[in-house]
Amino acid sequence: MAKDWKEKLNKIFHFESFRPGQREVLELLFENKSVLGLMPTGSGKSLTYQFFAETLNKGGERAELVLVVTPLIALMEDQSQKARSFGLEAGFIHSQIPASEKEKRLQRLKAGFYTLFFATPERLQKPEFQEALSQRTLRLFVVDEAHCISLWGHDFRPDYAKLGEFRKKWKEPLTLALTATATPDVQKEILKSLSIQNSQIVSTGLKRDNIGIQVHEVYGLEEKMEDMIPRLRERTGTALIYTTLIKTAEEIRRFLHKQGLESLIYHGDLPPQKRRSSLKKFMMEEKSLMVATPAFGLGIDKANIRNVFHLEPPGSLESYFQEVGRAGRDGLPSQAILYYDSEDLTIPMQFIQSAHPEKSYIEKMYHLIESHPDKIKSLGAEYLAEQMSFKNRGDHRVESALNILERWGCITRNQEVIELAGALDPEMFTLENQQQLLKHHNQKLYTFLQWIKNTEECRLLGIYRYFGHEGETPCGLCDVCVPPKG
To answer: CA triplet 205, 345, 464: central angle to 5 degrees?
Structure first.
């Protein structure tokens, strides 16, 4: 089969040659060996499973399926369209699709119409989805953004923790786990969670030496804007402005408007239609300007992002490098600027604290759900918020505790309906110690702060070392390699 790979790559996918890592991943998959691929975003991860799926695309009834699990609802349609442009029968399903269309797609999945199918991890738990899947042979199980599996990582998502159980239920199919950012510890957890510990790891490195990273120590929003506005006016391509808080994103956008700089906005409180519209405009416009929270960006592959600004710090080097890595995908010189105000550190500290509520808080919430089922059924999380957070809008512990109880199998959530599903096992507090996790993520934030305050080591070398990559050379572009004049 390998002999005709180059011809297929050129004729079907319109590439002259494989990018680093792609062929190595494919060779292992075709030897029926599961793989963990560590490949930067924009390095062509999707080609690996598209190429594999093409070999199953023989026309007529399709018994074998490539199933891709991804959290990226906004990009499923684009990914499916791209796959279809290569002649693949690709489809997707998620919560924002009308019920009648969902049913139609499930029937087509069941009938063997699709070769490549995209779904969220939440969808895999639905009985109707599992019933449709039961008529197919799961030839390749792809876990995109696999770092979301790790409880100790920077972007843990509870439904990702259930993917190992799903894989066992479907007789441990060939598996491809893909991520751009994973420390050695997170890599081990991905392999363990998916029960693919003996799999090979294909890493293409993290090198992004076309991005000049700068850290500017400032005081207050005014100083940040004074430095950023001229840079935005002079930009030659697209720019991304990241904030942690939604209210800051809205404030920045209003300020830019007053300065005659029109921008798009993207955050979790916007209606789905508005988010899709902002994403579409961002991808289409040559010099678009996006103000966003971390809700924006996973899977974004726009070549000419020249500037990435951080006006509030994320909670870890993983998050920061993932967001910075969206710049300069075309290989041309790009710039990332982090504005550091020591007072801003309270923001990630509060998020980390809220994400790991103490044992007594989790117990109280469970007993509240247990003892007031009628109120929980009618009022849902709103009632819990009133009882548990005392109307403090900055307290995110309610959602965190619900996620934990759902992960432990104590409750189920369907849309807004919360119901008791099992007993609260005291052993879970030992197996998943929230205070240990809190300490771990605070340490990540402290490591990020040390990197910010560093004035001795190349910015990129510090990031490479954090991810376990040694032997790289200084970038020659960052504020440590080329100190600012004056």
So the answer is: 15
